[in-house]
Design brief:
Blueprint (H helix, E strand, L loop, with lengths): L2 H12 L4 E4 L10 H9 L4 E2 L18 H14 L5 E6 L1 H12 L4 E7 L8 H13 L3 H15 L2 H6 L1 H12 L3 H12 L5 H5 L5 E6 L7 H10 L3 E6 L6 H4 L1 H22 L1
Parallel strand pairs: 1-2, 1-3, 3-4, 4-5, 5-6
Helix pairs in contact: 1-13, 2-13, 3-4, 5-9, 6-8
Length: 270
């Protein structure tokens, strides 16, 4: 079989694999637009929710907890009749994906963790998040703090060569709710270590790192890869903390590779 024929065969086999795309803190599901449209054109059911308090999703009145966000996702999958899916999470979305694995075991076909970490926050990091949340109560300080986060979210290459991405990011941040940000930061601060969850995730998995990420270290990525029974690490050049926005084609290629692994495993099991 030629390489082209093999590609076509794998594409046909991959059709119908559900994919969940979980967005980063401060953003919403629109950060996945490029990947969502491409995956849907190939026949994948794609679930790209606005996590509570972001985009069009109301925050609700429950206490800050990633458990709640993970359970939101389980209910959405149930509503759509999806039992199992490939989970993809970037930054906060990665935390949600790991909590979903903990609370709803057996529902993931594959896993992509991007710009995130399994370890719980140490005391200093928790204090920083709580301090951020406290600042969100002051309208003037909140807006200044939110705007100040934009430069660190994308890499040097994006700042130099992709002004449209920076402009899009600033526009999204301008509309984010300080109350929702405070809730999310407190939920993240309260999360527990997820290393044990990854050790139990015996599914195809990839840990993706932007080569220019200022917020998550290579050591964080290596720790997750070492915990995952079938994890591999891929560094995405020219990207900071938000590869789906900064390098959409490269991000999609990584997702295609993961889905191909899931399909191959499914075919082998038949």
């Amino acid at each position: 079989m030629t390489a082209q024929a093999t590609t076509h065969a794998m594409t046909r086999a991959a059709e119908g694999v559900p994919v969940v795309l979980l967005h980063a803190l401060s953003l919403d599901s629109s950060m996945w637009d490029a990947q969502r449209y491409a995956l849907e054109r190939r026949g994948h059911p794609v679930v790209a929710p606005d996590q509570r308090g972001f985009g069009t999703s109301p925050l609700g009145d429950g206490p800050p907890s990633l458990d709640t966000v993970a359970d939101d996702l389980a209910r959405e999958l149930d509503r759509r009749g999806i039992d199992r899916a490939v989970l993809v999470g970037v930054s906060m979305g990665g935390y949600v994906a790991m909590e979903f694995l903990r609370r709803h075991p057996g529902r993931a076909l594959g896993l992509a963790l991007m710009s995130t970490r399994a370890e719980a926050d140490d005391e200093a990091a928790r204090a920083g998040r709580e301090g951020f949340a406290a600042l969100m109560a002051d309208p003037v300080k909140a807006r200044a703090v939110i705007e100040s986060t934009a430069p660190r979210l994308v890499g040097a290459t994006t700042h130099a060569e992709r002004p449209q991405v920076v402009a899009r990011l600033r526009a999204v941040l301008a509309g984010v709710s300080p109350v929702s940000l405070a809730w999310a930061q407190q939920a993240i601060a309260a999360r527990t270590d997820a290393t044990d969850v990854l050790r139990a995730a015996d599914i195809p998995a990839v840990v993706l790192t932007g080569a220019e990420d200022q917020l998550v270290s290579a050591a964080d990525a290596r720790a997750m890869v070492e915990a995952l029974p079938r994890g591999r690490h891929s560094v995405i050049p020219g990207s900071g903390h938000l590869p789906p926005l900064e390098v959409p084609a490269a991000t999609l290629a990584e997702l295609d590779a993961l889905i191909a692994e899931v399909v191959a495993e499914t075919e082998d099991a038949r």
